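Posting here for the record, re: iron/sulfur cluster.
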Amino acid sequence: MCGIVGVHAPGQEAAGLASLALFALQHRGQESAGVAVSDGEGVMVYKDLGMVAQVLDERRLPSLRGHLAIAHCRYSTTGSTLWENSQPSYRLGPRRAVAVGHNGNLVNTRQLLERLRGGKRRMSGTSDTELLTALLSDEPADDLVDALGRVLPGISGAFSLVVMDEQRVVGVRDPHGFRPLVLGRLPGEPEGWVLASETAALDILGADVVREVEPGEMVVLGEPGGPRSVRYAEGREHLCVFELIYFARPDSYMLGRSLYEARRRMGEELAREAPVDADMVMPVPDTGAPAAVGFAEASGLPYREGMVKNRYAGRTFIQPSQAMRQRGVNVKLSPLREQVRGRRLVVVDDSIVRGTTTKQIVALLRRAGATEVHLRISAPPIFHPCFYGIDTQVETELIAARMDLEGIRDYLGADSLAYLSIGGVLDALQLPRDRFCFACFDGVYPVPVPYDVASHKFVLEDDPVVASAVTVP
Ligand code: SF4
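Prediction output follows.
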């Protein structure tokens, strides 16, 4: 996933605003955080492994001065969790200083590496974003916007970007618009602007939503006259439908839809598609809650909370290794025994990826005295890997790719299991199918994925030149 922010705030300290907005995007990536800032003369970057509040604390921010900033929190899809791969990625090239924050995943990394080698430059990290930063800093063009106009048509895959040099911040969406990016206006005078992955990040700054950046568009901040739109490619939107089902915050809006309301309606559809005789409906907290509310409303069953979440534990799915994920669930959820004991439960969650967490939740509820556990999932089964910014690149890790429905139910230890259909998702969203990427459900990839990228996420660490430039554990 990753969260990105860009700020142009004349007369204000942009790094503080960008860090605050990034705090609202913490759910999008917990491996590293960072900010790049410019006062119009030079770009300075501060970043580290860790959560936003740990990295960008009050001791750091006062030294990061300037009216332009970008910020990033990382969830890795290409390259290991190394300091070198944390973002914003920065490069002082022969022509310009460039800092980049990237949400997404490029699929032509080999090709870009060859192009970079042609210029005899070395990488300082093993992420796809490092490649892009190096290409932009080297590009012989008059300014950053021209450099982007030359480099972007050569990159392929999913990318929502915030890019800056000394004088501008530029927001970019790839021609398919896989990942979201929204433009907002900061309150007060003089006029200031903000770009962010989600509208929830604008809310925290008191900014008004202006519009979504369009697929194939750049929005340039920092110039007189307000934001400038530059179209660098034809756009045809394929927004990741999982953003609406699960990844983005429920208080965010995308494509004019409240994500809470969309998820509540997915729960209603699920109750119609897969009714069950039970005593109560409960969510897997917190992300299953809107769909569980919708399921309860449509089914007439009472809605209760059957588990509490330790609000200081991270989201298990976006921890980078299976071992960490397994430890994560134990510290994250505990049952409300009085609520579940002796009851037949409908347990609503928004997705099953590997199944590890769901299996532990079912066991936890049974130990707490539930007599039946009926799982209802407000998304279709995930049969195919994602190469556009979600770390599900290994098909064998996906439970639905390995087992049929009965096999999954048996593995999870549930009394029954049902998923929402693709048609049910679309009925809830009330938008046409061709506006979305559904590739992990239907296997139709809007951008072809070459074999070396499909094979694993450490594609650049296999390259001896790249590997020699950084310490790879
Ligand atoms: S493959 Fe799935 S997770 Fe990846 S962008 Fe498409 S819908 Fe989203």
